Amino acid sequence: MPKSSFQLVPSSSADTPLNFDIDFETGKVGGRDGPRVVTLCEAAMVNGYVVGHPYPTSYDITNPFINIQELAVVLGQYWRLDGKLIDAYPKFESDEGSSDISVLY
């Protein structure tokens, strides 16, 4: 996957928009908020997991710099995800099948 640019809107008014670039082949992160993305991803890697939607689901985190699914889970805790990230977010199926709940953007 080539270099991608993202502009994410915060999930709450307590945070600010997140603008960054990432190259999933090299793992290099840049852009205005690149250092913040690096800090969040490194913390998730140290913990080895994050809890994401649907709560309380744990997702293993090994290297979100090259794995778009992991990046989506890390950032989806605080920001509304856009096209590529929302498509990459792990799909959840319960014992009763998939959910019919609409995702709001």
Short account of what is shown:
The protein has 105 residues and is α+β, with helices and mostly antiparallel strands. It is 27% helix and 30% strand.
Descriptive notes:
- The structure is a single chain.
- The protein has 105 residues and is of the alpha+beta class.
- The chain has one domain (3-89).
- Helices cover 27% and strands 30% of the residues.
- It has 3 helices and 8 strands.
- The chain has helices spanning 34-47, 68-75, 83-88, and strands at residues 3-10, 18-23, 28-30, 49-52, 57-60, 79-80, 93-94, 97-98.
- A 4-stranded antiparallel sheet has the order 3-2-1-6, with helices on one face. Strands 4-5 form a two-stranded antiparallel ribbon. Strands 7-8 form a two-stranded antiparallel sheet.
- Strand 1 (3-10) and strand 2 form a beta hairpin.
- The protein is globular and about 35 Å long.
Features:
105 residues; alpha+beta; 4-stranded antiparallel β-sheet; two-stranded antiparallel ribbon; 8 strands
Q: Give the number of domains.
A: 1
Oligomeric state of the chains in view: single chain
Strand order within the widest beta sheet: 3-2-1-6
The total of beta strands comes to 8
Total count of helical runs of at least 4 residues: 3
Report the C-alpha radius of gyration, rounded: 14 Å
Shape: globular
Query: What is the arithmetic mean of pLDDT?
Result: 89
**Secondary-structure element sequence?**
EEEHEEHEHEE
Largest sheet: 4 strands, antiparallel
- Supply the helix-strand structural class: alpha+beta
pLDDT < 50 runs, ≥5 residues: none
How helical, in percent, are the residues?
25-40%
- Beta-strand content estimate: 25-35%
Task: Give the termini separation.
Answer: 24 Å
